[in-house]
Amino acid sequence: MDSIIFDVDGTLWNSTEVVAKAWNNYLQKEEHMNITFTADQLKALFGKPLAEIAALIFPEHPVDEQSRLIDGCCEAEHALLHITGAPLYEDLEKALQILSAKYPLYIVSNSQCGYIELFLEKNGFGKYFRGHLCNGDTGLDKGSNIRQIADQNGLKSPVYIGDTMGDFEACRKAGVPFILAEYGFGKVPEPDMRISKPMDLITLFC
């Protein structure tokens, strides 16, 4: 193993409470829609590409309207996260400090443009990561983005840390081992490895 690629939601932080509040406020006050999301509902959606999430939560709307509504949700989400941030998982920064001294670290997410940058800026974590890609940047699925960031940076033997079956399937497509963050949002029956907290990565790799 020569490098580590991370997911964001359910792996590095849990923004679902903040995002639910932002989406509800926007949809109810700006769009006058009688709709309410909970953090648990968002946990089941996070990790999917944004267009897929929009189709699931606005099925009665045409595609262009789904896109407009989810874009509005994301703008509201970014604005609130810039103010409040979101809870990080246990001892995350300590783990990143140790890992980044030994390995190049990257992020690949199915998020919208600007979300990874927001995460890095809000937490001061840019110093720990060498690069990142997301669906919003490239329009590609997560497996393709994992493969692309590995190829672009000459990563010969990366591993990916994520928390959903979608992450597992993306790793299989990219030909990269998958480590399940069991504290995250999903369940994966047969990952290559498991961790119950970020500091478990130190035990595995340092």
From TrEMBL:
Protein keywords: Hydrolase
Official protein name in the record: HAD family hydrolase
NCBIfam families with a match to the protein in the record: HAD-SF-IA-v1
Example of a GO biological process term: DNA repair
GO MF annotation: an example: phosphoglycolate phosphatase activity
InterPro entries for the chain: HAD-like_hydrolase_sf, HAD-like_sf, HAD-SF_hydro_IA, HAD_2, HAD_sf, PGP-like_dom2
Residues passing through the membrane, by range: none
One Pfam assignment: HAD_2
